[in-house]
Amino acid sequence: xxxxxxxxxxxxxxxxxxxxxxxxxxxxxxxxxxxxxxxxxxxxxxxxxxxxxxxxxxxxxxxxxxxxxxxxxxxxxxxxxxxxxxxxxxxxxxxxxxxxxxxxxxxxxxxxxxxxxxxxxxxxxxxxxxxxxxxxxxxxxxxxxxxxxxxxxxxxxxxxxxxxxxxxxxxxxxxxxxxxxxxxxxxxxxxxxxxxxxxxxxxxxxxxxxxxxxxxxxxxxxxxxxxxxxxxxxxxxxxxxxxxxxx
Length: 247
Fold this sequence. Notes:
Layout: H1 3-17, E1 19-21, H2 22-29, H3 33-45, E2 50-52, E3 55-57, E4 63-64, H4 70-73, H5 78-90, E5 97-100, H6 104-110, E6 119-122, H7 125-133, E7 137-140, E8 144-146, E9 151-153, H8 155-161, E10 166-171, E11 175-177, E12 181-184, H9 187-198, E13 200-206, E14 215-216, E15 218-221, E16 227-230, E17 244-246
Parallel strand pairs: 4-14, 5-6, 5-10, 6-7, 10-13, 13-16, 16-17
Antiparallel strand pairs: 1-3, 2-3, 8-9, 11-12, 12-15
Helix pairs in contact: 2-3, 5-6, 8-9
């Protein structure tokens, strides 16, 4: 295997898992320890990864422990989010009973929903208002209000979700990782995401390309639990997975 091929394979493994040991890379590449260590030294020097004792980690491997305010996130990667939102909105059909998670991408999706007869449940006051103004029947969860993400979170919201069975659901996420799944920084919000996803038949996560290979504090679902709607700018290491829909 040529050095360039090994570099590509190492990057794919590191980006998928966030980190890898020398031993893991030796087995994956069928290469000697000295070859792997030499490759890691070169890739570290070139800024592709960070070499640590016994292996390497992705450059963006820091675990995010806090949410960014909604107003700031609305301005980020807007073109990607609009493309994702337009595609997601077309998936909603007449007669659907839909869960819409709080988030900037899911909020954008509401602008493009065209069906005349669907019922919605959400944990966002903003989403509920927009859906109601479009003439839909909307139910909003009760519980603790989290100002950073403008979401209803916590145990009371989870209890409310127990009575619902959704035909389709749409979620936002702070991080996507092959090994660590979908994650968000805060436990109470993760609880609501997890329960709503468990009670849904068709699950869609709306995510621009910056969310891939990111990890936040709390996992709310496994990587293969939902179809990920994203754009064609997604990292190449994810393109092989069947649950990735590029728009």
